[in-house]
Amino acid sequence: MAAAYLGEPVEAPPSDGISRVIFSQSSDLLLSSSWDKSEPEQARESSLKFQTRSLAMYTDGRGYALGSVEGRVAMEFFDTSPEAQASKYAFKCHRRTEGGKDVVFPVHSIAFHSGYGTFATGGGDGVICIWDGENKKRLFQTARYPTSVASMCFSRGGDMLAVAASYAYEQGERDHPSDAIYVRAVQDVEVRPKARKAA
Questions:
Q1: Which of 158, 77, 79 has its CA nearest to residue 118?
Q2: What is the domain range of residue 85?
Q3: Which of 71, 90, 99, 136 has its CA 20 to 30 A from that of 120?
C-alpha cells in the first residue's frame, strides 16, 4: 500500500472493510465506504498542522497514518466514538541535530507490514524507521540511504522492503545523488512488536 503526493489529492487504496481515504490540498480528509466517487461517510480536518506528505491505512482497517512535512506522524481511527478518538496520537520522527540545531525532515512514505501491523516511515533524512504503533515504540532504524526515502513498500509476505531513494527538493535546487531503487531483506526482529512488560 503506497501513496504519493503530486499536487493532487493523496489516496490510500482499499484495505479490508475500508475502501477509500483521500487527503486534499486544503487539509480536508474524506473517508468513504465505496471506491466510486460518491459522497464520503466522514469529512475531517487533519490533526497535523503542516502539509500532509504521506498516507497509509492500517492493515486491520481500523484507521490510518498521516505523515507531514514537519517530521510528524498522526495515528488516527475511523471509529468516531469518544473512546476510539481518545486513542489517536501523533509523534515526532525524522529529526537530527546538525551544527547544534535541530533539523526536521518530511515523512515522505508510510508502509504497513501485513503480518504484524507494525509500520515503516521513510523521510527526507534518508532513513527508514520501523515502529510499533500499539506500544508507541521505534523498533528499528536503517542506515542512511544516499538521499531522501521518497517511497517504500513491504512485499506481500513482509520479508522484503522496496525503497525508492530520490531527492525530493527539501533543501531546494542543489546537487544530489542519482535516484535509485533498493530492495532489502527484512529481518523478523526488525518488524515484530515487542511484548509489553507486565505492570
A1: 158
A2: 10-191
A3: 99
